[in-house]
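Input (structure):
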């Protein structure tokens, strides 16, 4: 099991991990995605914030929250809060946060190798949750397994 610096969440039946350096906005983006989907009536929950344990299961990767931080999320400028969570999720999308200058204008539709498994990937700008949310929700819809039901066009 690999311990990674990332946040994870479930939107509908889709698992998402958000990766990037400290201060990139992983927690803010994960919490904003959960709030957006819940406001649309779509089930969404945090898996873990700041640290995830990743394990390959056949051709899938499962993210699990370490027991020591289960149910906690950090709000930047405030501190940790209690947050409803799932213990684990199969990962369908890896969001990589990078400096805005390195983010392509259009999603190239690529994949990222996570625990030796190709996972659909999206590159998003650091500290830009408002801009990233529509792209993430659209990418999840494009994966075609099932609808998340979130309204990706609403700001």
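Output (sequence):
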């Amino acid at each position: 099991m690999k311990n990674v610096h990332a946040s994870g969440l479930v939107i509908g039946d889709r698992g998402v991990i958000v990766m990037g350096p400290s201060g990139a906005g992983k927690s803010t983006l994960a919490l904003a995605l959960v709030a957006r989907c819940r406001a649309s009536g779509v089930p969404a929950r945090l898996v873990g914030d700041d640290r995830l344990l990743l394990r390959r299961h056949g051709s899938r990767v499962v993210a699990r929250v370490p027991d020591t931080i289960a149910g906690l999320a950090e709000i930047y400028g405030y501190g940790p809060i209690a947050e409803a969570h799932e213990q684990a999720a199969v990962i369908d999308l890896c969001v990589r946060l990078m400096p805005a200058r390195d983010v392509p204008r259009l999603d190239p539709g690529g994949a990222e190798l996570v625990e030796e498994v190709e996972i659909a990937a999206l590159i998003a700008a650091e500290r830009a949750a408002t801009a990233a949310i529509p792209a993430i929700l659209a990418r999840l819809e494009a994966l075609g397994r099932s609808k998340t039901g979130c309204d990706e066009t609403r700001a």
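Notes: DSSP finds two helices and twelve strands in the chain. The first helix runs from residue 26 to 39.
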